[in-house]
What we know:
By secondary structure, the chain is α/β, with parallel strands linked by helices. It is 31% helix and 20% strand.
Amino acid sequence: MSTYVVVGLQFGDEGKGKITDVLSAKSDYVVRYQGGDNAGHTVYVGENKFVLHLLPSGVLQSRGKCFIANGVVVNPKSFLREIGQIEEKGLNTDHVFISRRAHVIMPYHILLDTYREEELVGENQIGTTKKGIGPCYEDKIARVGIRMIDLLNPEVLADKIRTNLKVKNSLFEKYFNKPTLSFDVIYNECLELGEKLKDRIVDTELELNQALHDGKNILFEGAQALMLDIDFGTYPYVTSSSPSTGGVCTGAGVPPTALQNLIGVAKAYCTRVGNGPFPTELHDDLGEQIRKIGHEFGATTGRPRRTGWLDLVALKHACMINGINHLVITKLDVLSGIENLKIATQYKTEDGKLIDYFTSSTTKLYKYEPVYKELPGWTEDITKARSYEDLPDNAQKYIEFIEDYLGISVYLVSVGPERSQNIIRKEIF
Length: 429
């Protein structure tokens, strides 16, 4: 048995999709274990660009099955739309299945998400994608959620929709001053979706645990990243689930003892979408340069990403929580041509104290100043490098500085968006 977990270590958009795609070629199972279609994973295959929101990134070349596990919240319409887009390009999707226990994003979840965000102003906005993710997780925890298995049980489905609409319609009408939703429209639509998906709705946790017993290779794929984790991220500017390695256990129904290779993915710099603290953010021409060269625009929303220097204080926090034993650094090529590079190694607090640990206080984090280590850059084009020795000396020193600070080896360096643009320093698969 070999298991691999791919997680983001910053604010998302680190290139996890590409890494998952590469590793999936040798996997018997690829499993998404949290989040929803608010995620955006971009994978390049030759001339084709695939932007996946809900489907596991491994769907494009996995030799085995792809599971959307119980910890994911599923918009059935988004699922069918993505399946259709992939099949239009001649790829097979018969190997994609959804957990019976996964919760369904309903129309009222999307409206609640939208109306709430519209009520907030400026920095008070979370910056949600308005996909209904948070409200769906709320219903799950409140024990009133609708699960995929309910789409196949008309009586249970009807009871649950009626119960939910009593509360949701009251909110829409009396609090938001918006139109109410029709039971018949939602119910009939759900029955139709259930009919279309019935052959894909399975007990994923049973098959995964049998696969563990049989010694299969299983790749678990997270969405978002640790700094957006509901517990350990920059709360409240976070997602509504746990993108950590720990989230695999509850999100896919496998034991902690089964997790072996914990792979953390980080950019050579840092980006963030939406509001929330970002200590190393660049507000100058260099920040704009990195945005343009790195094509830093949200895969789901198209929003320009905020850009900044690499933050090793936050990265150390993310590696600690996740227990990372293999590190991936992506987009190193974007830094080519920058004369002097900076990496944050400490924060300076309001009272002048220097700290090298991440704070739980989002309010304080806004006021912390990053303390930088400056490293010389390089001018060479590194997009064609295929071995570590091909990298300029200063690029190697940049990677090694990260390793020394974190005490974790970088096993893969990505120098471009293509599958082939990777430098693998050691094989772990």
